[in-house]
Amino acid sequence: MCPTILALLLNSAITSNLKLKVTFFLAMCCALVFPAFASTPSSGTLTPVNGSSTTWAGSGIAGATTDETTCVDGTDCDVFTITLTGSPSNYQGLILAINISHSVTLNDYDLYVHKGSLSGPVIASSTNGIPETGESVVIDPTVSGTGVYIVHVVDSNVTPGDPYSGVASITTPPTDSPAHGTAPTYSNYQSPPGLGDSSGEPSIGANFNSGRIMTQAVFDTLQVTFNPSTSPASATWLLKDGPNTNITTLDPILFTDSQTGRTVVSQLFGTTSLSAFTDNDGATYTLSQGGGIASGVDHQTVGGGPFRLCTADQLLATPAPCAQLAARGPLTQYPHAVYYASQDIGDAEMALSQDGGLTYEAAHPMYTLVECGGLHGHIKVSKSGIVYVPNKSCGSTQGLIVSMDNGITFTVEPVTGSTSGTSDPSVGVGAKGRVYFGYIGGDGHPHISVSDDQGRSWHNDLDVGVPFAIRNAAFPEVVAGDNDRASFFFLATPSAGDATGADTGTPFNGVWHGYIATTYNGGRSWFTVDATPTDPVQLGVICTQGTTCPSGTRNLLDFNDITVDRVGRVFTAYTDGCITAACIAKGNNASAPHTRLDNDQATKATIIRQSTGKGLFKSYDSTPLRP
Amino acid sequence: MKRAAFLAFLVLSLTASAVGKQPAPEILGLRLGMSYNQAHARLNEIGQFKSEDEGQQVWTLSHDKHYQYLIIGFDRDRHVRYVTVLARPDGQPVNYADVGNLAYAARSGGEGNLRYTWKANDKKGRFEYLAIAKGKDPRHLNRYAVKRLGVAAADDDRD
Description:
The structure holds 2 protein chains of 2 kinds.
Chain A: H1 2-10, H2 17-33, E1 43-46, E2 53-57, E3 63-64, E4 77-84, E5 95-101, E6 108-115, E7 122-126, E8 134-139, H3 141-144, E9 147-158, E10 165-171, E11 185-190, E12 203-206, E13 213-217, E14 220-227, E15 234-239, E16 252-256, E17 263-269, E18 272-278, E19 286-287, E20 298-306, H4 312-317, H5 319-327, E21 336-343, E22 347-353, E23 364-368, E24 380-381, E25 387-394, E26 397-403, E27 411-414, E28 426-429, E29 435-440, E30 446-451, E31 459-463, E32 472-480, E33 486-493, E34 511-519, E35 527-530, E36 538-539, E37 561-564, E38 570-576, H6 581-588, E39 604-612
Parallel strand pairs in A: 1-4
Antiparallel strand pairs in A: 2-10, 3-9, 4-9, 5-8, 5-10, 6-7, 6-9, 11-39, 12-13, 13-14, 14-15, 16-17, 17-18, 18-19, 20-21, 21-22, 22-23, 24-25, 25-26, 26-27, 28-29, 29-30, 30-31, 32-33, 33-34, 34-35, 34-36, 37-38, 38-39
Helix pairs in contact in A: 1-2
Chain B: H1 2-19, E1 26-27, E2 30-31, H2 36-46, E3 47-53, E4 56-61, E5 67-74, E6 80-87, H3 96-99, E7 106-110, E8 113-121, E9 128-135, E10 143-148
């Protein structure tokens, strides 16, 4: 009985002291009855010989977790240790293959492999969902080294009676498989005349409950409804301004919590922001305090998602820190956290709202300018409540700022392998915690890197602009769905030169399009698609040097945005700087000049909507997207 | 009752006059509104340039026993808009009360995230400014800043 009760509680947020006490009591009961388990055997050794193998049996653990960070070993996850003998060079032409399998298609195990120890970097993971009955990873010991590997098997959602079995073997590598299948297609929807005409740095969000899209074009808060009864779908745009968010601004931002349907709009104003939120896509608003930073400078961002709260198993294992987390949980019926962050004077800070964005606490420092540049990208929150803020310059690399305690403390994780750049990077977080970090490197190319351990280590850093010979890119935006699926939107041009500078010498000559790269295999390969193939977004320079940019070079301002709807369809918001027939014709004429003098310098709100192809949620693959 | 009130007033007045009601609009000789060249002359006396980001500069302080780094921001006219100093982890601690009279500060935050904010005019009344002391410790600050109000940062997006 105890495991059943615990399983019911595992995914539920602990929202009150009473619930905390009840859960703790139940967990204690269970601990007395059900001892911790371990895999059998607990370890094995492999040699650098094709065919060397070891097997083990899972401990029969059952439970449910949000991601690896919310499991408790011996309760809803277990460990098997592999030791590779010899030196890395002994494994030339060989790989370490690790597989686990189970029987019941309604159960879901996940597989993580750490190097060295359980707290070491995750160098490979496999997090398929129901109805898959196996997980597998491949590791190259010539790259990752020999010695100890920790196989961490986590119950994503497992009922008792379906133990897994594991096999690790040394074998020859499989044939490398680039992205295969059909690439997604996209359609563009320009806002109607009079709406979204001034749309620098737009934001976009999807309300899973209503199915509507919300987007911000400086002062215009726009509700967009797509009607799929026609093909292509028609779009209805409605102006839904908040009472205090269409007056003045130093920076606009909109955030929609897809799960709750709440949209927060914020306009930077002096040392705070004018802000309001709506639960009905703009029909009515509630005024907000605005932010928690007393002297914020600029570039504020709002984000949110689940609070980080302990599962019942974690509560049993670490009651004190769990109680601290619970104290920063929801204070009202609104179940999710809302965060406000901004550059301040010499540092960047973040403030938590425990009442859905109505009020904010005094902000906590995230980092100082000694560690990272002041401006940062937008907040993303994982399903397990981990808060991420990307930064384009933390020393010589891009950086990811991480909070595991609802915004009290922060760590700065360098994105190893990256180089610092001039566009704010973006993160997408998969359903089981995989982090996709999209950025424009110092070489101007669009890169995306993947982490399975909250930014402590990175892998699969790829230049997704290669299929189009991209030489310069700007405004990276990432959204993830299932753990293995993510989309990466960016503006880019194949033209070389100083494409994002001040354009003070010979004007930069290039045509910019909007590209979307999508992965369905956890970032190992990406489909890159030109989503604006016949309609350029900009001619000439896109200056990313802030207000030092000369007039006529910064019409797009500083960023775009991307989101995903309930069925996994991807939407992006971008500012279109080239909208007249003459400008578009020049952009489509390879022999025409393409400098800022040929550009419209327009700022028109436009949405890209995925038309066909697989979305970001596998559970909807059986219902193909229609244009 | 009247005597107690008088004593309380006297204590408050003495404390205020001893510490100064409001912090001065400067840190380590770097005064709000100072020109870029003047500021750099002073900065070169007390530290070494470390990095620059969006018109804000980080300087490593050479010999200050309290503070390790100084961060300075300029407005569009290249005058000092703000100065922030970060406490040296192994340095001589600075109490919140050392920078201004706490009785005149607004206290916010809480345990582990404390801040005192003073709002003041400079002596000639030319501009308003904030002085902000923040820290995790209940007595010692981690960082201290003065910021001029009503001027745009060099990197503000719009007016």
